[in-house]
Amino acid sequence: MTTDAESLLILSSGSWEASVVRRNARERLEVSRLEGVFPRARYVFFPVKEERVREIDGSLTVHEVRGGEPPGPLARLAWLRRAWLLVTGYRRIRRVAEETGVAAVYAVDPFLSGLVGLLLSRRLGVPLAVAVVSNYRLSYRAGGVNPMPVVPAPVAFALERWVLARAQLVLADRKFYRDYALSRGAPRERVRIAPCYADPAFHEAEPDPGIWERLGIEDPSPVVYVGRLSPEKYSLELLEAFARIAEGSPDRHLVVLGGEGPLRGEFLTGARARSLGERVHLREGLEPDEVFSALAGAGVVLAPHAGYALLEAALAAAPVVAYDFEWHPEVVEDGVTGRLVPYRDPRAMAEAALELLEDPEGARALGAEARRRCRRRYRIERTVEELEAHFRWLLRSGGEGR
Length: 402
Prior knowledge:
Layout: E1 7-12, H1 16-21, H2 25-33, E2 40-45, E3 52-57, E4 60-64, H3 78-100, E5 104-107, H4 112-124, E6 128-132, H5 136-143, H6 153-166, E7 169-172, H7 175-183, E8 191-193, H8 200-204, H9 211-214, E9 223-227, H10 235-248, E10 254-258, H11 264-273, E11 280-283, H12 288-296, E12 300-303, H13 308-315, E13 320-323, E14 339-341, H14 346-358, H15 360-377, H16 380-397
Parallel strand pairs: 1-2, 1-5, 2-4, 5-6, 6-7, 7-8, 9-10, 9-12, 10-11, 12-13, 13-14
Antiparallel strand pairs: 3-4
């Protein structure tokens, strides 16, 4: 391997295959590599089942790192397997970093990636940047998903606090997550915002007016939801809200774009129990242009807890009803770019949705203003520009003050 001391080492849990199949994944890789600052980037995925190295192009290499297992009967001890995985994985990643040379380490979360990144930054004497792209404690309480499964959740959150307190740069992509990072011990002078962005195609896409016919939906302006069916997304409250909408609008249908997740079965069973089985539709595996067209053709979009889908709905000029929760107020200004309703109040969500469905002209006006604002604020070019500015500061200062 060649040595390039100006490389950026990016650490991510999971696998390359899982990353590239997600919507926006390739664009996110392009953003992460920060070519305006670093001539080369090395993206490390850990842990994976099979080790390999992929040369994506002349400036990006992907390393998939598999941790080892303890020998013989020791492999039966779960705690030892986890510890062995961490130690051997760290050593292999360190070897990649030492052989190639890096100028900075960028961990995409403050848990496993952050822990490995902090150890590497100290070993190599280079600064560490850590991304915070969720309120991880809130998600854990809502859905019970441990953000670092190789250790118990209390240990994971203790490590999160330890990492955030020591990283030279903490990057949040929303104000809500900046505040979360501060609450978890990140020094205020080291926390920066580089705003998130939507799929670039959504900025210029044109809707297909025949989308509902192609998807087999009889309602010309259905209620739409985008995302997983899982506890942290309040999916059962989504169903309750739609049941109330259906009472006031008997011909209305609900279209779920996506629909995978642990509550899928309970969601569909609940729909049938409410005699809504024929009016609730799950559509999976849609292309981005189909998602855009579906959002643009929605009578209303419901967002109990939305991520990037909130931006996509806004860019499609869809009228949105969202809980006043998490980062939603950064996109939805009540009565201006959509409707905000009290957190975990499906009755209020249904009432606001019915008001929009009964006033399509007013609903379209809200959607148009949301699109206008998001086209300006959430562009990939702006994200890259601000990320590169933050990393230039990191390399100049090492993260001490500003």
